[in-house]
Amino acid sequence: MHNSAKIALLLLSAALATVSVDAQSSASSSRHINTGMTAAPAAFNLATAGKPGCANSPTGGNCPESAPCCSHAGYCGSDALFCGETCQPGGSFDPKDSCWPLPMSVNLHDEFKDPSRLVEARDYNGFPDSADWVVDYSLAKKPHAEITADQKLVLKLNRHEPHPDTGGGIGATVHSSRWLHYGTIEARLKTAATGPGTVSSFILISSISGDEIDYEIVGKDPLDVQTNYYYRVQPGRPVDYTRSDSLYQETDTSADYHDYKIEWTPTEMKWSIDGKFDKEHSRNVTKAEAGGSFPDTPMRVAFGLWDGGSFPNEGTSDWAGKNTSYAPNNEREYIMSVEWVKITPLNPEPAGEPWPGSKYLKRMEESDGGKGGSGGSGGPRVGRGKSGATALTSASSLATAVFTASLAAFASFVFA
Ligand SMILES: *[C@@H]1O[C@H](CO)[C@@H](O)[C@H](O)[C@H]1NC(C)=O
Ligand SMILES: *[C@@H]1O[C@H](CO)[C@@H](O)[C@H](O)[C@H]1NC(C)=O
Predict the structure, then answer these.
(1) Measured between alpha carbons, how far is 341 from 344 in angstroms, rounded to an integer?
(2) What pairs make up the disulfide bonds (predicted)?
(3) Within 13 Å, how many C-alpha atoms sit on residue 249's CB side?
(4) N or C: which end of the chain has fewer CB within 10 A?
(5) 191 to each of 66, 156, 221, 281, how far by Cα in Å?
(6) How confident is the model at residue 137, as a pLDDT?
(7) Candidate from 269, 286, 294 with most ligand 1 atoms within 8 A of CB, to mutate
């Protein structure tokens, strides 16, 4: 596996893992997107790790009631960017309650008939019944992702406004509103690999745990469908880049729709294209093969399109294929188009449950120090295995009450 690609993949994971939001409050418009250029894997910043309160709380301690949630960048606010996935219980107003609980997946076969099922992160209220898809915060004034009248989920990359950090184009990331803990994801999509520099992706990712399972297609070679997985990508922890593989296709992924599938069980990860499980179209990684590095925490489904060719990091830009062209006058636009997506959880939640219902993914209080502890009444615990790997309890315990995931727990085992 070539070195440049390795670097690039890491950065992709950082870029997709989160948008690092530095804001004085939810009302502030001065936000900074972490493009992953500097401190990769800067998936997020454990602002409160090891110290009480929220790093940039106006009151100096935990966030105030008016802006109760401590973001991963250590700022207080009350919308999805603060209370959503990377909210830090320890610095929040009420460590037990301020961060929104995270919903688990229902069976979903989405043919994108309803544009209102996709919302901007800033407009998302945390209720999964209100949206299936959330568009990550974007630097662009106009949205770069939408469900179109012809029933496609479309992600756009253009340089109608230059990216303030890279000078390149601005793309989009769309996340599922719910979290999957084992199951199958499938999507029929056409990549944006119509020119060097673009990166199209269909992945499972958690910026809480740093786990990730990927399909990535770079514009440099639209036939080269790359698979990859990551385990616990966290700041300060070495990242293994050797797991990338190529499912080389005979046809151009940007010319036609193809079906991309990831099957993820407690014992294996399988990638297959157009339903074919053969040497050319598939990849099968078992838990034994992955050693102690088998992604096993809840993740969200994500579609991403971004400009890798304009990254200042040479590894990334080489991998994606530099330079991304918007020539001659920035009128060129790259489009990734998804016809449908199907999410089939191993243990689906019943659809139409009131929210929050009896089962959800809840972060533990930071004061637990990652040593287990209450995630709610009788719920499974986060513990540590012999190898030091966090043992989120088995899938079967999902059938019980509350499922816990803890930033603090992951952090403590990562740095232990
Ligand atoms: C994946 O590999 C495991 C172990 O080698 C095997 O048991 C399983 O059948 C394989 N799956 C497929 C679809 O080939
Ligand atoms: C690519 O972009 C870099 C940075 O802007 C520039 O220095 C270089 O000349 C460009 N290469 C080509 C082939 O246009």
Answers:
(1) 10
(2) 69-83
(3) 23
(4) C
(5) 43, 11, 11, 17
(6) 85
(7) 286
* CATH C-level class of 108-345: mainly beta
Q: Give the closest residue (by CA) to ligand 2 atom 10.
A: 323
End-to-end CA distance of the chain: 30
Which pLDDT score, from 0 to 100, does residue 302 have?
Answer: 98
* Among protein residues, the one whose CA lies closest to atom 14 of ligand 1: 284
What average pLDDT score do residues 370-384 get?
27
The token duo for 364 is 């533990």
Model confidence at 401: pLDDT above 60: no
Sequence spans of domains, the chain = 20-101+356-393, 108-345
- pLDDT value of residue 96: 85
- Classified as helix, coil or strand, 227 is strand
Average pLDDT over residues 294-303: 96
- State mean pLDDT over 73-102: 89
**What residue's CA is closest to ligand 2, atom 3?**
323
- Going from the Cα of 268 to the center of ligand 1, the distance in angstroms, rounded, reads 8
Whole-model pTM over 0.85: no
